[in-house]
Design a protein that fits this description.
single chain, disordered N terminus, 5-stranded antiparallel sheet
């Protein structure tokens, strides 16, 4: 029922376009007839000139036929007198060439006199059915129309080439005749003079034939030039004729195509709301198949609408050109069919990349939000949504992810430390570049791949300071008990005094190791991320508080010593 409804609505859209096309075709024919009737009087004088020119061309052809007949008679007489087989073969070949020229002259005479192609009246042999030939025959009207548009220019160019060739041959033939006549006048031997006189008519006939050809071609060129109108008039007439016929048909075809597209889109948007799962964030399989069918039907029915319009207005040239374009598109798609199949699998979400999963693209993880002709990738930490063509997803894979997986090591306004000891605040980040602003205002920019390769340490979450501090071996008895407690209490007191207590998460003082010249303690402090800009200041403050505590409690701070043992 739905298919029948769609077909009925499509016919309702196409029928007005086709009716308008047929009506415009009839109006165009009527207007063309009126224009011919009004211009008939002005064309009478041109027709008289054309008839006169045709008579001149026919006279030239008759002269050429007469000359050819004389030369053929002379060749036949020479063959009868020929004494050797070689001479007969030579004369036979020449006679065959003259006979072919005579046949061409007869054909030219008939075509010029009748004004039609003689081959149209010849019976044609019935060809064996070949589907390839039949398919190509559909495109023949378009190809013939393209040839027709250039037939005059190609015919004129061919005549000019022939004229140039005969004009080059004419002086050669004239020179040969003059030379033979000069030799006859100078010959003392009668037999030699007779032989030369027998040769002279052939070359005179050849000279006359070339002259007739030159005159004939020149008359044809003059006729073509008289028939040619000015470029401006020809262009104007062509444009008017185009918009009256084929321009209108093209407009109707485009209108029908757009109408089908909007109709199918309206039906799709109406029906898709009735399908369960339409409003889900990630579309289920049957919704994706429905969308794929919708896109395929849009292409097929749009093409059919164009062909239907051309068929009903009976413009076989536009129809064949449309078929040529379709055949070219199918031929071009032949090599890319595997790619289209892979894209179809991605669109219906059964390919290696799927919606709602995590994939790597340009070295950065992305959430696949939407797969279509143009797909959407999103990185929550970067705050970027990327639109890429579906072809970019071919050859990639996605996977399910855990909700705690990070999408980027940092976010905007976070403080980081890189492996090259660079510390700064992230002021800009994308999948292309990351910009840091260091203390003092200096800026440093990294390509995102290089930034990730330097293992950024994010201080804006929470961070820990480990500050070593050494005392002398004279305090060995209290180094692991009383002194760590006293130092911890002293540092806690100063942290509260200087206003860092609210961001302090943990404070411990532990014995680290017995060094070569000192007993080493380590002060461990954990702070919240909002103290990240004061990272180095806090480290220096802990060092200062350790020294102040040593002064208050009289702890000796050792320095490296070198002991020299002197032998006896």
């Amino acid at each position: 029922m739905k298919k029948f409804l769609s077909l009925a609505i499509t016919v309702l859209i196409l029928f007005p376009c086709i009716a308008v096309g047929q009506e415009s075709q009839a109006i165009g024919q009527t207007q063309a007839g009126d224009s011919i009737q009004t211009e008939q009087t002005s064309d009478d004088s041109s027709a008289l000139k054309a008839e006169h020119n045709t008579l001149e061309i026919l006279k030239s052809i008759v002269k050429s036929k007469t000359t050819l007949k004389q030369r053929m008679d002379e060749k036949k007489k020479a063959m009868a007198k020929a004494g050797s087989q070689t001479e007969k073969q030579y004369l036979t070949q020449e006679l065959a060439d003259l006979d072919k020229q005579m046949a061409d002259a007869v054909t030219d005479f008939e075509m010029t006199a009748t004004g039609v192609e003689i081959g149209l009246f010849m019976s044609k042999k019935k060809d064996r059915f070949d589907w390839k030939d039949e398919l190509l025959s559909l495109a023949e009207p378009g190809i013939m129309e393209l040839k027709r548009l250039t037939v005059k220019a190609r015919h004129k160019s061919k005549l000019n080439d022939e004229l140039s060739n005969y004009q080059d041959l004419l002086p050669v033939a004239t020179k040969a005749v003059n030379r033979i006549e000069s030799l006859i006048s100078q010959a003392d031997d009668r037999s030699l003079a007779a032989a030369l006189k027998n040769l002279l008519p052939e070359y005179k006939g050849l000279e006359n034939q070339i002259k007739n050809k030159v005159n004939l071609i020149q008359l044809k060129l003059d006729e073509i030039e008289r028939e040619e109108t000015s470029v401006l008039d020809s262009t104007q007439n062509t444009v008017k004729e185009f918009f009256r016929t084929r321009g209108l048909y093209l407009f109707l075809a485009i209108l029908a195509c757009i109408g089908v597209v909007f109709l199918i889109r309206f039906l799709y948007q109406t029906l898709i709301r009735l399908v369960p799962g339409y409003k889900l964030e990630y579309r289920p399989f049957h919704i994706r198949v429905f969308e794929l069918v919708y896109r395929s039907m849009t292409i097929v029915l749009s093409v059919m609408a164009v062909i239907t319009v051309f068929y009903f207005v009976e413009d076989w040239v536009l129809l064949s050109l449309a078929i040529i374009v379709i055949m070219g598109g199918i031929w071009a798609a032949k090599n890319t069919l595997p790619m289209y199949m892979e894209q179809s699998r991605l669109i219906i979400n059964i390919g290696p990349v799927r919606e709602g999963e995590r994939m790597m693209y340009q070295g950065v993880p992305w959430l696949v939000k939407h797969i279509n002709i143009y797909s959407l990738l999103e990185n929550p930490d970067l705050g970027i949504t990327l639109r890429i063509p579906i072809s970019e997803l071919i050859g990639k894979t996605s996977r399910k992810f855990d909700s705690h997986e990070p999408w980027f090591p940092c976010r905007k306004n976070d403080w980081v430390i890189l492996s090259d000891e660079t510390r700064g605040c992230v002021t800009h980040l994308s999948h292309e570049t990351v910009e840091l602003v260091m203390r003092g205002g200096a800026k440093k920019t990294y390509q995102t791949g290089d930034f990730l390769a330097m293992a950024p340490l994010n201080l804006s979450v929470n961070f820990r300071l480990k500050v070593p501090f050494g005392i002398s071996y004279g305090h060995q008895q209290d180094a692991t008990t009383a002194i760590p407690e006293l130092l911890s209490a002293y540092i806690q007191k100063n942290i509260e005094k200087e206003g860092y207590a609210e961001d302090l998460l943990n404070l411990r003082v532990e014995f680290a190791e017995a060094g070569a010249s000192s007993l080493d303690l380590v002060v461990i402090t954990d702070f919240k991320g909002n103290q990240a800009p004061l990272y180095n200041r806090l480290k220096r403050s802990v060092q200062r508080w350790c020294v102040d505590a040593a002064s208050q409690y009289n702890w000796d701070i050792p320095f490296p010593q070198i002991t020299v043992h002197q032998g006896a």
